[in-house]
Amino acid sequence: MRFAKTTQMLLLLQGLVLLEVVNAQTGFTSLVCGAPSDYISQSDGISWTSDTAFAPPISKTFSLPSNSSLRTLRSFPPDASRPSGRSCYSILVPFGLSLVRATFTYGNYDTLNKPPVFGVSIGATMFSTINFNTQDPWVEEMILNAAEVQTFCLISMDGIPVISLLEFRPLPPGAYNHASSSLGVALKKIYRIDCGSEAMKNTRYPDDNYDRIWNSDQYYLDASTSSTHSITHDLNTSAVADAAPMTVLQSNRFNFRNQSLSYSLPLAKPNGKYLMNTYFSELHGAVGPTFKLSVNEAVLMTVGGLPPLSVSEFTVTQAASWWWNISLLPVSGAPLINALEIYETVQLQHISNKKDARALNLIKLSFNAQNILLDWSLGSDPCFPVPWRGISCDTTGIVTSLDLSRSQLSGDVAGLFQDFTRLEYLNVSGNNLFGRIPDLKGRFQSLKVLDLSDNQLTGTLDGFATLNLHYLNIANNQFSGPIPEKFDQPGLVLITLGNPCIQYATNPCPSVTDHKPQPVGISARRSGHHSRSLVVGVVSGTLAALLVIAAAGIICCHRYKLQRELMDASEEDIVSVKGAPSESGAFKGVLSRVQETASCLRVHVWRFTQGSFIRFTVKGPTHELGAKAHFSARRGGWTRTSAPWR
């Protein structure tokens, strides 16, 4: 409940409309999709609300031909901002047991004669696949315990998803107790049959207070000599919370000749599990007959001694087959039935971790909307049935990875550091993030990989000191100051290129007052069996760039002096070489004459004019390089890292 209220607040802050549609039907939400305005149905008096205020972004509306049973539809064409193909409605509905019904039609509205196929999910659970090649229009109905903010999503599979009507109906307490959130089960309607109806018509609101739609049994009845009987006075339904409406219960079907009464019903999933509600009422004012109920010749129960003028409900569960042949077999007297319902039981998918879902919703609200976050539908489940773009989750719904690299994010980086349960990977490189790293003490203890490169972040690295990282990339930002001692830990890869000056313990940064452009390069430090340091240099294309790089090198840690030492080094001074071609012994003649020695480290990467690379370590005096740098120059001390820097 608390999380749902928080989600409502987030939705309101974002500017999304959250309305509990108020009309003549208390608690009803009746959306007509694609309609320009509201209207009231003349046939049943239901007040329909245009879905304009609820519809997901990036959609189109269409009017249907006058001979169609539906007026309009809304379609959701593919869009780069919605790569998951998920389009969601987020509706504020009464909390508790609800009937959710959606009506879809294709009707060749686009004149392409290409009916789409798409999925339908509620919350985290995929309920069905809509395929107009087998049926058009298509109605899906589910009974489940609804959240306060209910999300209904269409998921593209083949073609463009469409929808015409979306309805939410509250159900009374105690009804359909098999649809229990505690049991993790919802009910998907397969059949709801009015047994004994003489008219080929459907019964719904206002005859049914909960707007369940009951179909005449004449569509499903096996050929027989059955008869119907009806009365006009009310029956006692106090013992049945989910009883069929009075107009349905006031008629029943029976067989005078004491023969069996049968219905043949095809089922879509032969491997599913189904639940059947049956309603019986003796309308003659006497004790009712006794008969057996069987499915596919397997007797499931015996019904007898029905109280007169009252309603009894029997529920059975049964494994599926392609067909259910439901038979009422006489024992004494004529078997009878008033109504029956068949539901497929659907196991609800575990929802995402509430703490992580809230963190993601806060991230969406913290940054501008014209980016990857358009694919994040607030109120929908981040992990199931299809994860939001850039998100990976484990099977329990905990977010483990968040990749928002190059996603046009713009804002204060502090908005990213929300409270996740077990986030292991975070990549927000290549955006327009600014600001300082907040104090992360007590948070992100599972984070192993953090990539903040290519942003506009400032300040020191102290905010990272409490993290247990294996890989940290802060390249091309505006960080400065010392590297925390904790970063000198085994297995850590640190990439610091393109920052004003990152200070290693043995090589403090000089005081630099001017802000001339720094050479582009990568300073990476990796601790393992030995403490190692890596510096990557990149070649500049023009003489002017060479002069700028040389000037910057003089300012930072006497790089020019180190370069001369390197150029004068003999092959005996080169301790290790990685990546060189066979003629590496003659490296001086073929290497580009530009190098980067950021942070005064003595492991170098040079680029061949042909484009290949060479890594080598040069000996240096301890008093210039520091003990750790000198130690890294020991023979065999360098091994190439496989860190995934870009």
Automatic annotation (TrEMBL):
<feature type="domain" description="Leucine-rich repeat-containing N-terminal plant-type">
    <location>
        <begin position="354"/>
        <end position="394"/>
    </location>
</feature>
<dbReference type="InterPro" id="IPR013210">
    <property type="entry name" value="LRR_N_plant-typ"/>
</dbReference>
<dbReference type="InterPro" id="IPR001611">
    <property type="entry name" value="Leu-rich_rpt"/>
</dbReference>
<dbReference type="Pfam" id="PF12819">
    <property type="entry name" value="Malectin_like"/>
</dbReference>
<keyword id="KW-1133">Transmembrane helix</keyword>
<keyword id="KW-0472">Membrane</keyword>
<keyword id="KW-0433">Leucine-rich repeat</keyword>
<feature type="signal peptide">
    <location>
        <begin position="1"/>
        <end position="24"/>
    </location>
</feature>
<keyword id="KW-0812">Transmembrane</keyword>
<dbReference type="Pfam" id="PF00560">
    <property type="entry name" value="LRR_1"/>
</dbReference>
<dbReference type="GO" id="GO:0016020">
    <property type="term" value="C:membrane"/>
</dbReference>
<protein>
    <recommendedName>
        <fullName>Malectin-like domain-containing protein</fullName>
    </recommendedName>
</protein>
<keyword id="KW-0677">Repeat</keyword>
<feature type="transmembrane region" description="Helical">
    <location>
        <begin position="534"/>
        <end position="557"/>
    </location>
</feature>
<feature type="domain" description="Malectin-like">
    <location>
        <begin position="33"/>
        <end position="344"/>
    </location>
</feature>
<dbReference type="InterPro" id="IPR024788">
    <property type="entry name" value="Malectin-like_Carb-bd_dom"/>
</dbReference>
<dbReference type="InterPro" id="IPR032675">
    <property type="entry name" value="LRR_dom_sf"/>
</dbReference>
<dbReference type="Pfam" id="PF08263">
    <property type="entry name" value="LRRNT_2"/>
</dbReference>
<keyword id="KW-0732">Signal</keyword>
